[in-house]
Design brief:
Immunoglobulin-like; about 140 residues; 6-stranded mixed sheet; alpha+beta; 4-stranded antiparallel sheet
Amino acid sequence: MNTLQTRSTAMTTFLAALIALTLACGYSSKTTPPVAGAVPAITQLSPDSATAGGTAFMLTVNGSNFGTKAAVNWNGVAQTTTYVSGGQLTVAVPASLIAASGNVSVTVTNPGTQGNGMYGGGTLPETSTAMTFTIN
């Protein structure tokens, strides 16, 4: 091999190694910040009221854009939520949460998702507008 061929082979080998390392490290010239996800919307609570001091009950939340890991929030506190469909969630409301009369703010939050790769991506958590549940 002459000197020119040796340099060409060395340069090709160097570039191939550099490309392999760059790809292996997850480098991307594009960074993707988190973006907004689907905002859930509540259209109906069933029931929409309860008697103070009453017994535990099942609350059905109807609406749209509910994620499979959506959470129903009772006065801002996430409750154990069962996903029925993209338009329906259920929550077992214990008697302790309806012990006293008043209004309760009910919202639904779709959690954010982690992005792919080294620089993120993914979605931000999204919370619905509140609907009022009345405790008489």
